[in-house]
Every structure is written in C-alpha cells, then in structure tokens.
Design goal:
8-stranded parallel barrel, 16 helices, binds ligand TNX
Length: 519
C-alpha cells in the first residue's frame, strides 16, 4: 500500500523531501487562502490548509498511479491529467508501490484498508513536493480530484485559459459522504434537452460530488427514448413538447452514450418512465393503451393528472414489459423509476394493483423499483425506493424497512421560483431561495423517516417553463450546489453562513464555466 508509506515519507509540514524538484525562479508560491477562506463545496469532513506553503503544478509535474491500478483508477488519472493540461503533459505514469514519489508527483492510490473515508470519500495531502490522493474506490479518488480542482485557480475551468503553472495551498483533507444518494432529476419530457446538454449537466454534477442523474424520460408531452420493439413511442410520442416545439428523443445508442459518459464521472443514470398517469404521449402512440382503443392527440399544455393507462386491460402489459426490458438492458445502474405520481382518474384499488404488478415486472428485469411518494401505501418490497416530494406515506415504507429519497418540493424543487421576481418556473410549492434549499436536515424532515431510512436527497428540475439549456441552468444554479452539500457534508458541519461565503467564492468558477445563474 503505497499511500501509508508515502504519508510517512511526506508529512505535509515537511518542505524539502525525496527528489523534490526545485522551482524555476519567479515561481514563488502565490499567497494561499487562510484555512477558513477556502471555497470547497460540499464542505469536507475535515480540512486543514497551511497558508505558508503551496504546491505548484507546472511542466515538471506528472500524474502517477500504482503499477497494479485497474482501469477505473486509470480513468480518474487521465481525467485529472486532461484537466491540468496544458500546464502538464496529459499523460499518466505508473510507479511501483512503495517507491518514493518523484518531486512534482500527483499520485492517486487505492488504500482499501482506509477506515475513515467510506465508499466514496478520500484523503488528499498536499505538500510543496507532491500531492497524494488515496481512497478505497476509484469513485473516492474522483471525488478527491474534485476537491483538488476547487483548490486550484478558476482558470482551470476554462479550456482556453492561459495556464502555465497552477498553485494550490498545502494541506490535508479527509472526507466521507453522508448519504449514498445525491441526485438531480432533469425533466427532458416537457422540454427536450440534447445529449450534449445532458453531458454538460453531468460535468457540473461531478464538480459537486453528486452521483445520480435521474432522467424523467416520459410524460404527457413527450416520450424521449427509443424502444425498438415499440417504435411509435419515440416516433409519435417524442414528436412534440410543451408549447408545440419539435420535441425529440434519444436513440438507444445516444442513451448508452449518456450512461457511459455519466459512468466516467461516477454518476449513475436512473431512467424514469412515468406511469400509469402522465402518459398522454404513450397513449397517443399506441391505441391499445387506451380503454376506448382510440389514441388521443399529442398534448402540449401543462396540466397534470388527466391521463392514465388502461390498467385493467391485459393489452397494456406486453408493451410495458417491452419498455422495462429494453431500458433495463441499456442501464447498468440498479434502479428503474416508474413514476406513479398524480393519478386522478383511477380508483385507489386500480392504482395499487398496477403499482404492485409493475414492481414484479421491474424486479423480474433485475432492477429495484423507485416511485414517487404516492406509491408508498401499495404492498411494496423493502428493496423498492420511495421518492418523497410532498406530504405522503413515506413513513409507512420506512416502517417496512424500505428506503426513502427526499425531494421535498418546498425545499429542493428547482423548478420553483427563487422569489417573486423570478421570471421562469412555477410556484405551487412556494418560493425556494438558495437558503431554503440549504437549511434543512434530511434526517429529521419527515416524522417516522429516520436517517437510517433516508437513502439520500435529490433535486428535481421540472421543465414546463424551461426551454433552453440556459433556462435549466438558471434554475439549477446555485440551488443544486446547496443540495449537493446537504447530501454530502456531515450533519454537524451544515451551517448557512459558511456555505454562503464559500458559494460567493465560487462565483468566478461558475462564471468561468459559463453557467447562467441569477445575478
Ligand atoms: C408535480 S412532482 C409533478 C410534475 C410537475 C411538477 C411541477 C411530481 C412527482 N409531479 O409532474 O412537473 O409538479 O412542479
């Protein structure tokens, strides 16, 4: 295990150590942030910065991994080397475990015995001589790289910025995540977003250590994924959107590209096909999904609750089985989301029978089912996950040993206006300021749903009023960053004033990334 020997060799207070490369004249360390003046979000479990020392990344620096490191670690190292180019060569070198690191090394190493960082955390040690990140998993290393990124100047965020040398403060960070599920949902059904736009969001999620991207792939206004055995779903169902625009859908190849891109950033794609309500696009595509066997016209308004599959008809289930089978086969993640929200035209019995039947279909395809809060009263397996969004029976699910994702509308709905002056968005849940999105505790939010039952948090972004990617960004940032900290940072460290200060210091980074945020 090279990490521990490395730590012994290079305690971060030591200045000149093994093979330390002397810096060219004129590259004296820049002044570094005082310990309490860093901008890292989400806030790590522990952070000490040494204002008197720094590490300089320049042409003498190289990214190293251990000789036996596997593909995932190599992927993180390549991501890091690419991020640091052209300040360094975008190459990764391998080094035998236990060998002293050359000066200027930025080393990524797996330490599977580390007892404090959990499955997704990391330790980051920065001395004037070298940088070392260790973690139990490649995901942990990736998160360590994001912390390192936030300690670097914002020029790192713009591909065209001049950067010959990058300076960061010496120090040590030990970090672990609080919740396993830290997500965002994009509603690509009401208004469609292309693959590039989704990938941009994935990159932004990664910066803040979010690890789930839930795609709301169907609703009344649009069906957004190709189903090869039922081609009309995408062809007809995907042909329009709110307001009557062209809509669109992901081919299966494009969906797989999104899944792979997300995986390279340690983000799992969670597909949602909303049913039995929110189904006008499907009903318009196949007449047999309707009780009267007649397809309705496409819908481009923003009402909810009017549509439902003909749940008592045997004819709908072969279609749903095909949909779940094809999407599950393209999705390496463990989850399939069946929606289940806002059904106003079925009886309680019809609704519950349908949810229970879908649970069987989803499980038969090797996935855990997720559904919005309304599904909780049905007979659910404890492996099914309930996603809370308003007052519901989540506590019933927690009592049966099930897990709950918290997406309370009054806290983290990113489609709700910031305040009365916000032009975009809705406001049925009230106004959600940045502070509203930050100031709450998932462990005590729902009576009867203790921390042990909380899988994590997710911020949904519904898109009735959002047309372009810039509109989505405007509503997401910076509130999504607040939710990222709620999901990652240990409960005792959540503190609004500190967060607000760090967020202010991130403004330059968001600008360099070209993110459209409220001024
Ligand atoms: C409720 S939240 C919905 C969505 C809307 C959203 C608008 C949920 C499960 N259903 O269909 O887009 O409100 O805020």
């Amino acid at each position: 295990m090279r990490s521990s020997s490395f730590r012994r060799a290079l305690p971060f207070t030591v200045l000149a150590v093994v093979g330390c490369t002397s810096r060219p004249p004129g590259t004296a360390p820049l002044p570094v942030a005082r310990e309490e003046r860093h901008s890292i979000i989400p806030l790590p479990s522990s952070i000490q910065l040494d204002p008197t020392q720094s590490f300089v990344i320049d042409t003498l620096s190289t990214v190293y991994i251990d000789e036996g490191a596997g593909t995932p670690v190599e992927g993180v190292a390549t991501y890091l080397a690419t991020m640091l180019a052209p300040a360094i060569k975008p190459e990764v070198r391998r080094i035998a475990s236990g060998t002293p690191l050359p000066g200027g090394a930025i080393h990524l190493g797996i330490d599977s015995a580390n007892a404090v960082v959990g499955a997704e955390g990391y330790e980051l040690t920065i001395t004037p001589a070298a940088v070392n990140i260790t973690a139990r998993t490649a995901a942990g290393l990736f998160h360590g790289v994001q912390t390192l990124r936030q300690l670097l100047p914002v020029s790192i965020e713009h591909p065209a910025a001049l950067r010959h040398q990058l300076t960061m403060p010496a120090g040590r960070v030990v970090d672990a995540s609080r919740f396993e599920w830290r997500g965002m949902m994009l509603d690509v059904s009401r208004h469609f977003l292309g693959v590039r736009d989704i990938e941009r969001f994935i990159d932004l999620l990664a910066l803040y250590k979010l690890n789930r991207l839930h795609l709301h792939l169907s609703d009344d206004q649009g069906w957004r994924i190709e189903i090869q055995s039922r081609p009309n779903l995408a062809k007809i169902g995907g042909s329009t959107q709110v307001g009557g625009g062209r809509g669109g859908y992901y081919t299966q190849a494009e969906y797989m590209d999104i899944v792979a891109y997300a995986a390279s950033r340690f983000i799992t794609i969670v597909p949602e096909i909303d049913m039995p309500g929110h189904t006008n696009a499907a009903l318009a595509s196949y007449p047999e999904l309707n009780c009267n066997k007649v397809s309705p016209p496409p819908y481009t308004g923003i009402r909810v609750g009017f549509s439902a599959l003909c749940v008592d008809s045997a004819a709908i289930y072969p279609v749903l089985e095909d949909v779940v089978r094809e999407i599950s086969a393209l999705t390496p993640g463990s989850w399939f989301h069946i929606g289940g929200d806002e059904v106003k035209t079925l009886t309680t019995e019809q609704y519950r029978r349908f949810i229970e039947r879908m649970q069987g279909i989803v499980n038969a395809n090797g996935k855990q089912m997720i559904g919005w809060g309304e599904i909780a009263p049905a007979q659910l397996s404890p492996t099914t996950v309930v996603q809370n969004w308003k007052k519901d029976s989540s506590a019933v699910h927690a009592a049966r040993g099930g897990k709950v994702i918290l997406s309370p509308g009054i806290k983290v709905y990113l489609d709700q206006k910031y305040d009365s002056s916000t032009i975009l968005g809705l406001n049925w849940a009230g106004f959600n300021s940045v502070r509203t999105a930050y100031d709450w505790n998932p462990a005590t939010f729902i009576p009867g749903v203790p921390e042990s039952a909380v899988l994590g948090v997710e911020a949904p972004l519904w898109s009735e009023t959002l047309v372009k990617s810039e509109d989505f960004e405007f509503m997401a940032f910076p509130r999504l960053i607040a939710v990222a900290e709620v999901g990652w940072t240990q409960a005792g460290l959540i503190e609004w004033d500190g967060f607000r200060r760090r967020l202010e210091m991130q403004t330059g980074r968001l600008n360099a990334l070209g993110i459209n945020t409220p001024r």
